[in-house]
Known about the structure:
Number of helices of chain A: 5
Largest interface: A-B, 27 and 22 residues
Number of domains of chain B: 1
Helix content of chain B: 25-40%
CATH class of chain A: Alpha Beta
Low-confidence stretches of chain A: none
Low-confidence stretches of chain B: none
Strand content of chain B: 15-25%
CATH superfamily of chain A: Histidine kinase-like ATPase, C-terminal domain
Distance between the termini of chain B: 26 Å
Oligomer: heterodimer
Number of strands of chain B: 5
CATH architecture of chain A: 2-Layer Sandwich
Shape of chain A: globular
Largest sheet of chain B: 5 strands, mixed
Helix content of chain A: 25-40%
Structural class of chain A: alpha+beta
CATH architecture of chain B: 3-Layer(aba) Sandwich
Radius of gyration of chain A: 14 Å
Strand order of the largest sheet of chain A: 1-2-3-5-4
Order of helices and strands of chain A: EHHEEHHHEE
CATH class of chain B: Alpha Beta
CATH superfamily of chain B: HprK N-terminal domain-like
Mean pLDDT of chain A: 94
Mean pLDDT of chain B: 93
Number of helices of chain B: 5
Amino acid sequence: MSEVLNFRFLVDGEDFTSAGQASVKVKKNLRQLGISPETIRRVSIAMYEGEINMVIHARGGVADVNVAEDYVEIVLADKGPGIKDINQAMQEGFSTAPDSVRSLGFGAGMGLPNMKRYTDYMDIQSTVGEGTTITMRVNIE
Amino acid sequence: MKIVTIKQLLDAEVVCNEELLDKHVYSACGSDMMSDVLAYVKDQAVLLTGLVNSQVIRTAEMMDMVCIVLVRSKLPTPEMIDLARESGIVLMTTSKRMYEACGLLYSSGLVGNKVKK
């Protein structure tokens, strides 16, 4: 597998119930490619948290998953409100999610820290009022 | 511990995938916050929760969990049942409360998750 394989998903920002569908598909696709279960789990958890974040904060966005020979890259781009203070957002327990989201089991301020925890590389580019792009990579061992 | 033992210990009712009761679980996690569940990694675990929505099933699926127990007699939505069936996750419901359900499993030898640093 020398070429990079791309999967692109539009994340629907209207419906919290369907959030996570793209991650489920990615998981299935990676399984078919014969990638190890541990790597798949790390990719799908990071992507799932990212997808949930896009639905909660940014009314959806675009998720690209690029599978290269030695890593899986996830690029999540949205045109949401942006992140004011990235360092603060990276702290466990810090959340700006509304209470309505908390009653659904999310918004505990664990999303971004979890994404960092499960990936080998993570970069956040965000401009307030314009949107956020998060790039994550998980190495294939 | 086999999933069937969990069913017996919690006096639980199986909602779907009853044919998978012979599968083994090696750890458990009890939480209503799915992000907390996602912060832990362990193979073949059971999730105990009082939360009822489709994200419960998706979270378990992402974590490769094999069994979900809804506590306090919570009933799953039809969508949850479909998703669980598709993902091969045993879904059951118990009248026990979270604290008691976790305590029963823990004292029977099913220990908790280890935090991945």
